[in-house]
Amino acid sequence: MDKIFDCMTIFNSAPFAMVLLDNEGYFLRANDYFKRMTGLTQVEVDSLVGEGLFKSCYDYSKTSGCRFNDSCYSCRLGWIIEETIANREGLEKEEFLLKLGGHNVVKLAHVEASTTYIPKNDGMVLLTLSDVSSQKAVMRDLKKRDSLINRFLMTAQAFVLVLDKELKVQMVNPFATKISGYSEDELLSMDVVSLVEDEEQRERIKRNFSEVFSKREVFSSYHTPLLTKSGNHRDIQWNTNYIETEESEPLILLMGYDITSEMKKEHERALFAERLKESQKLEAIGTLASGIAHDFNNILGAVMGFAELTLREVHDPVVKDYQQTILKAGERAAALVKQILTFSRESDTEMKPLYLDSLIDEVIFFMSSVLPSNVIIRKHAQVGVAPILADANKLHEIFVNLCTNSAQAMHNGGEISIAIENYSGTFDGKCPQGDYVRLTVSDSGVGIDEEVLPHIFEPFFTTKEQNVGTGMGLAVVYGIVKEMECEIFVSSKKGEGTTFTLLLPQYNGEVVEEDATVIIQKANQRKHIVFVDDEEDMVYLYKAVLESMGYSVTAFNDSIKAYKYMLEDHCDFDLLITDQTMPDMTGITLANHLHENRPDIPVLICTGYSTVQGFDTLQEQKNSIEILSKPVPVNLLSKRVHSLLFPRSVEA
Amino acid sequence: MAAIVVLDDDPLMLKMIEAALLAEKWEVIALSQSKKVVEHLKNTDISLLITDILMPDRDGLEVIRTVKAMHKECKIIAISGGGGMAAKDLLNIARCLGVEETLSKPFSVEVLVEKVKSLLYDKE
User: What 3-state class would DSSP assign to A31?
Assistant: First the structure.
C-alpha cells in the first residue's frame, strides 16, 4: 500500500505529463501534470479511459502521412505509440504541436514526446509529454536575430573581418571579398596583415593587434592603404574592436570603410591649393615686376637718351665707343623689361583659332637651323587634333623658349619630342574638367632637381652658368600661358629628362588658317637680304634662320662695312634688316643712305626700344621702313620679311 | 615758332627730353607739374606739348583734354611709362582725345626728334 501510494505520489508530482496506454494504445491513466498541461478536469480525464485518444486517423500511412494534413499531430503521436508497441521499444524526443485544452479550448503547444515500453502484463506504453513552447520561442528569436546579423554582414558596405588570437581570419563578409579581390576561402587561409602594403605599417598593426588581446581593450581607428589581389590600391579606414564572450575565445572585429575616392578628392584639393598658391606667388612677382618696370623705363629712357645726345657731341673715338656701349647695355635692359612685362601679362595678345599641327612644323623648321646639329626635334601628332584659340607669335615664343631650354639640358645632344593629342579630363585634378589639346615638349636631358622644380617659372631663376641665360625664358613662357588662359605643368627626373605639358582649351568654331607653308615655299624664289647687327651671336642666329627660310643672306657685324658694301654693290639686293643701335652708324642712318640711291628697297629696323607706335609718319616719308622690337620672335620676323618682299601676295 | 612744352614728373626723363629738343635749337619749357601747363597756356602760345600720361598729381589725360580745349591747333605727343597696368590702353585713349603722336618709354632721341619735326613741319 505504501509502495503503491509512493508510486502514485511520484507519478503525480512529476514535472511533466505522463500518460499510460495499454498495448493497443488505449488510454489507461494520466498524471496530474497532464491535467495541468491540457486543462482537462479529473472527470474529463477519467472519461478518457478506454478511449483511443492518440490513435492515428484511419487511413494514416507511414510514408505519406495523414491524408488530411501533413502535420496532423494526433496522427504522428498515434504513430509513435503504434511503433513503440510494435517494436516493444521506446522512442525519444519526438517534437510536435499538440492541441491542448480538451475539446473546447484550443491552444497549440510545442510538445516533446518520449515513449517507454513497459513489458508488464500484455505490455503498456508510458508516454511522457513536456511543453517546450517557451524554449521554442527563445530559439525562434535567436534565429531571427541570427539571420538579421547575417543579412547585415552580407550587405554591409564595409569590410568585416573577424580574427582570432593567432590573427587567423575566422569570418569575412562579401564586401571584403569584393574590395580585396580575394575569395572567401583565400581570405580565410591567408595572413590578413599581408594585405597592408607598407611593411613598416604591417609590423605596427601586428603589434597593435597583440596589444589589443593582451590589454583586452579597443583601440582607435586608423587609415591604411590596402593592396588588392590585382595589385590596385584602396584606402581603408579601419575600426578595431575587441570581442570577448563567455562562449568564445577572444576575437578582434575589424570594420573597414573604403575611403579611396574621398582620399583622391582630398589629394586633388590639396594639389589644386598648392598650384593656386604657386600661381598667386608668381602673380605677385609679376605685379611687383611690372611696377618696377615702369620706373625702370623712366631711368632707362634718361640713360639711353643722354647717351645718344652725348654721342652727337663727342668726336673722340674712345668716348664714342664708351657711349655706344652704354646704349647697347640700355637696349639689353629694355629688352629685359619687355620680357618682364610679358611675364606679368601686360603685352598685347592676338588670339586666333589655329591648328597646332602646322605651327609645330614651322617651329621645327626654324629651330632645327638654330639648335646644335646633334639635337633633333621630332613631332608626334595624333590624327584629328582639335583647333585651339591662341596667339601664334606667343606660341612661337613658348616653343623657342622650351626648345632652347631643352637643348641646353642636352649637352651631348639628344631628341626633343613635341607631341599633341586631344585630351579630356582634369589632369589629376590640376585643372577644371574640360576638352583640351595636350601639348608636350620632352627632352632626354639632364633633368631638373626636385627642389628646383617648383621655382623654375619664377622670373630671374636660372640654374645655368652666368651669361648663358637671363632666367626669364620659362617666366616668359608662364606669363604667356596665363595670358592665353591655359595651363602648364612640368615633370622631370634627374638624369632622364624633362617634360613640359600644356593644356590648351579646344576651340569649337571654324578655323581660317593662315598658311605658314606658303611663306616657306615662296621664299624659295631666291631673294637677297642684307643683315646688319653688331652682335656676332645675332648675326649668326638670324643668318641661319633666314637662310633656312630659303633666302640668300649677306650679313655684317659692322655698320660701316655694310655701308661700304651698299655703295660698291650698287645696292643690288631686296631687303635690308638692320639693328638700330650700332657703333658708327644707326639703323635709321643706314636706311637713309640706302634710300638715297634705292628708295624702293624695304628696310626692317630691329630695336630694343619699345615698339614705336605712330611710326607711320616716318614710314610714309621713308618708303617701306618697318620697325620690330627686340627680342624679335622668329615667326614674326619671317612674316614681316615675307610681307616686305612679297607685298602683293599679302594684299591678295 | 612758339615754344615746345614738355611735361613729365620724372626729373631725369624731363631733363633728357629737354636736352634733346634744345640740341635741335628749339625753344623748350620743361615742367614737372601739370597745373603749371595750364598756367602757361593762359599767358603764352605753345606749338607742341610733349606729356607723360601717368603722373601722380594730375592725370595726364586730363591735361591733354584741357590743352585741346584751350588750343585746338596745339599738337600733342603722349608718352606712356611702358610698365603701368594699362599703359597701352591709356595711349589708345589719348589718341581718341586727339593726340597726334604717341611714344612708349624708353624711346630713342632720334625717333622723338623725327616725330617733333614731322608735327612742326606739318603745321608750318
Answer: coil
Task: Tell me the pLDDT tens digit for each residue of A624-633.
Answer: 788 877 767 6
User: What is the Cα–Cα distance from A300 to B109, expressed in whole angstroms?
Assistant: 12
Average pLDDT score over chain A: 80
Shortest CA gap A292–chain B (Å): 8
Q: Could you give the CA distance from residue A98 to residue A72 in angstroms, rounded to a whole number? A: 9
3-state secondary structure of A499: strand
Nearest CB neighbour to B104, from listed A290, A610, A618: A610
Give the burial class of A584: count Cβ atoms within 10 A of its Cβ; 0-12 exposed, 13-18 middle, 19 or more buried.
middle
> What residue in A sits closest to B84 (Cα-Cα)?
A294
CA distances from B29 to A201, A254, A459, A585, B61 (A): 81, 90, 41, 31, 19
- With vertex at residue A113, the alpha carbon angle to CA A89 and CA A142, rounded to the nearest 5 degrees, is 135
A548-to-A73, A393, A568 alpha-carbon distances in Å: 109, 19, 27
Is the CB of residue A615 less than 8 Å away from at least one CB of chain B? yes
Distance from CA of B52 to the nearest CA of A (A): 10
Q: Give DSSP secondary structure letters for A244-307.
A: --SSS--EEEEEEEE-HHHHHHHHHHHHHHHHHHHHHHHHHHHHHHHHHHHHHHHHHHHHHHHH
pLDDT of residue A63 exceeding 60, the answer is no
Instruction: Look up residue A15 and give its three cell numbers.
Output: 514535472
Residue B10, burial from CB neighbour count under 10 angstroms (0-12, 13-18, 19+)? buried
pLDDT one-digit tens code per residue, A105-164:
456 677 788 889 998 878 888 888 888 878 888 888 999 988 888 888 888 888 888 888
**pTM above 0.80?**
no
Checking phi first, is residue A425 left (phi over 0); if not, alpha (psi -120 to 50) or beta? left
* Residue with cell string 652727337: A312
The alpha carbon of residue B80 is apart from the nearest alpha carbon of chain A, in Å, by 9
Under DSSP, the state recorded for B47 is: E
Q: In what order do the strands lie in the sheet with A159-163?
A: A169-172, A159-163, A251-258, A233-243, A219-227
- Confidence label for A98 from pLDDT (cuts 50, 70 and 90): low
What CA–CA distance (Å, rounded) separates A167 from A197?
Answer: 17
Q: Is B87 on the interface with A (CB under 8 A)?
A: yes
Would you say A634 and A396 are in contact if contact means Cβ atoms under 8 Å apart? yes
> What single DSSP character describes residue A446?
-
The Cβ of residue A220 has, within 10 Å, a number of other Cβ atoms equal to: 8
Q: What is the DSSP letter of A532?
A: E
pLDDT tens, residue by residue, A294-338: 778 888 888 988 988 888 888 998 898 888 888 888 888 887 777
Q: Cell numbers at residue A114, please?
A: 518520449
∠ Cα B93 B97 B99 (to 5°): 95
Instruction: Please report the pLDDT score of residue A68 as a whole number.
Output: 46
Nearest to A520, CA basis, from A360, A365, A288: A365
Any A CB within 8 A of B96 CB = no
